[in-house]
Amino acid sequence: MTRDMAKKSKKYRAALEKIDRDRLYGPKDGFELLKEIDQTSYDATIDCAMRLGIDPRKADQMVRGAVGLPHGIGKAVTVAVVAGGDKATEAREAGADHVGADDLVEQLTDGALIDELDSIIATPDMMGKLGRLGKTLGPRGLMPNPKSGTVTMDVAKAVGEIKSGRVEYRSDRNGNVHAVLGKASFTTDQLVDNYAALLDEIMRVRPSSTKGRYVRSVAISTSASPSVPLDPARSRLLTDDA
Asked: For residue 19, what are the contacts with CB-CB under 8 A and spacing of at least 6?
């Protein structure tokens, strides 16, 4: 046993022993196993990590966007909208949690609200004022971007989609994409549906300049569990057993 593994809890090590490391699980079997080995006393969040065959140093191979998950992510989402006038009114009526123009930008500049936000939407005319916050909002994945649908004049639609379960994704410097798929309390079929929606979206936005295998590996996990490897080649019949 390695030193790092010795530091893990007995529950973690027991869960790890149930995972066949020589096997790539089909999505249905994989989620069923993950639900089985989850030993948390709370409703754990299930995450998905995909390693893509892209060159993250090339701007034309960055993978970024947003996708609506059919069953949502199982948590309340806090959304701020930076807009003024009629667009601010539309955002409030759509259910945005924080709405404002210069006053909201000032709050974000001061650091207020940032930690409680899951998403920020802005109208195009407000992006000049938000731009200076790139170093603060960018690392947190909160900087509005047209590709993810968070820079838009249709703020009501954007708020509705995010509140109903749309998640944003972005490849990191190692070519990995991470996304939340739901909660451990979701049924296996709900998790598979959400995974299928994410996989379809990632395939849809494949950069044309990539070569070779695109989705190289997939793993699912909770914050307290070891990861379960899924078969990246399984893009059809996802609800079938492996």
From this structure: 33, 37, 226, 228, 229
